[in-house]
Structures are given as C-alpha cells and as structure tokens.
Design a protein that fits this description.
11 helices, Rossmann fold, alpha/beta, five-stranded parallel sheet
Length: 276
C-alpha cells in the first residue's frame, strides 16, 4: 500500500513538473509573438508611394516583349554551370516557351563575390546600372550569400577545419539585411513597374557537421529578406533551400558552393512557376 502511495506521488510530481515546463514554454512563445509586432513597428516603412503608372504594372503576360536585367553575385553570373547558362538563361528559355514572345537579356550585371553594400553603391552611383534597371520589365536578383558565407568559404579554402563554424553567421545577419533593404528600396525607386524576382538563400554546407546549423541562419535570412521586399507590390522571393538540403551531391558543383547545371535548372523552374 505504501509502495503504491509513493508511486502515485512520483507520478503526480512528474505531471506537475511537465505542466510547469509546458506553461513556461507557452509563455515564451506568447511573449515572442507579442514582441514581434513591436520590433517591426520600430522600423520605418518603405516608401512605396511611387506606384507604377496606369498601364505599366508588371504583367509579363500582357507585355509585348520581356526585357531582363540580371543583378547580384556569382549565382546570377552562373558560376558552377559548365554550360554557362546559369539560372538566367534557363529562365529565358522557359519564358519563351511560356509566352511565345520575344525575351531579351539586356544586361547580366552580376559580379562574382559581390555583397549587398556593393550592389547598393552600383545602383546608387553607376549610371550604367541605373539605365539598365530602368529599361527592364523583369529583374532577376541574387545577393546576400557573400555577406554571410565569406568567412566560412575562406576557412574551407585554407582547410582551417578547427575554426570552421556557424557562430559568425547569426551575428552578421541583421546588418546584412539592412543593406538588403537598401537594395530593394533603390530598385523600386529606379523602376517601380519592373517585376523583381529574388532568389532565397540555401545552405551549401548542409552535409558538413560543423556547418549544418547554418540552415537555421539561412531561414532567418530568408524570413528577413521576404519581410524586406513584401511591401513592394512587384517584388517576390523564390525559396530554394528545400531544393538543396539533403541533395547537395546532386545539385552543387565541385566548388561545394555554387549550383551545377541541374541545380540552376531547378532554381529556374521555381522562378518560372512564380511568374505570371
């Protein structure tokens, strides 16, 4: 009888402890939900007052031709694809089939290694960049990977496995996102009528134990990037992280960072699905 009382006492104590932990966790979640709107409210809203003029909304289906400008880093340049097409020219081929109309790449202005701050400088001060952006009705964009992964790639190149890790990624995300917001705002000011498709980031090091946790940082980046472009009516983000996680060997090139031909084809497929 006494043994039964002790057993029931232990069960009751464990139940109370579990309930307490559940309530504590629920409290943290509710607190985060309440704080999130307050944090967002502190950020100034983007100026989207310069709406596209009537008849110039970003509808590719109704356009006589599609004029593409590609911007950003080596992902837009197509590094890693031995055919040289990258995702940009796979998108071009897909758009020609989809709409049966002329599709032109006016400029591919992507630069390997480019970071968000450099792109802002080019868009703000380079008249060639500005002219190209103003002529486009479709802008394809990748940026942010070099802002976050530069240190990790340098350590891998030097075979510095001891200090390789994800600690630096999370620390630099908010600063990088602030630069990304400037990219989005500058693009909109230059050409509010153009449709802008931004490629979300993936973790190219998912198969490395020390860098698998970078996927969490990539999700944080993608969430912030989506929030940055969401106020602009003609901008969209295409997710890619799910294409690569678990299939790194199939879709990455030998440099373990850029997609191969198949990887770029999958990215282009996502972009084509998102375009009207």
């Amino acid at each position: 009888m006494r043994r039964n009382r002790l057993l029931w006492g232990w069960i009751a104590a464990c139940s109370l402890l579990s309930t307490g932990m559940l309530l504590a966790g629920l409290g943290i979640v509710i607190n985060d939900m309440l704080l999130a709107p307050a944090v967002l409210a502190q950020r100034p809203a983007p100026d989207v007052s310069s709406q596209p003029p009537p008849g110039q909304e970003a509808s590719l289906a109704s356009a006589k031709e599609i004029r593409i400008v590609a911007l950003g880093d080596s992902l837009t340049k197509g590094t890693g694809d031995t055919t040289g097409k990258g995702y940009v020219y796979h998108v071009v081929e897909g758009l020609k089939k989809k709409y049966d109309k002329p599709v032109h790449v006016l400029n591919n202005l992507a630069v390997g290694g480019m970071q968000a701050s450099e792109l802002v400088e080019r868009l703000s001060g380079d008249t060639g960049y500005q002219y190209a952006v103003k002529q486009a009705n479709l802008i394809l964009l990748t940026i942010g990977g070099n802002d976050l992964f530069l240190s990790a790639r340098a350590r891998m190149a030097q075979k510095d496995w001891e200090t390789l890790g994800v600690d630096g990624l999370a620390q630099g995300i908010e600063e990088a996102l602030e630069r990304f917001r400037k990219v989005a705002d500058t693009l909109y000011r230059l050409n509010p009528a153009a449709k802008v498709v931004y490629m979300g980031l993936y973790n190219p090091f998912y198969d490395l134990d020390k860098l698998r946790g970078a996927s969490i940082s990539m999700q944080e980046w993608n969430t912030g990037a989506y929030a940055a472009i969401h106020p602009y009516p003609n901008m969209m983000m295409v997710p890619t992280f799910d294409l690569f996680e678990g299939r790194i060997g199939e879709y990455l090139s030998s440099d373990h960072f850029h997609p191969n031909r198949e990887g770029y084809e999958r990215i282009a497929g996502r972009m084509l699905e998102s375009l009207d």
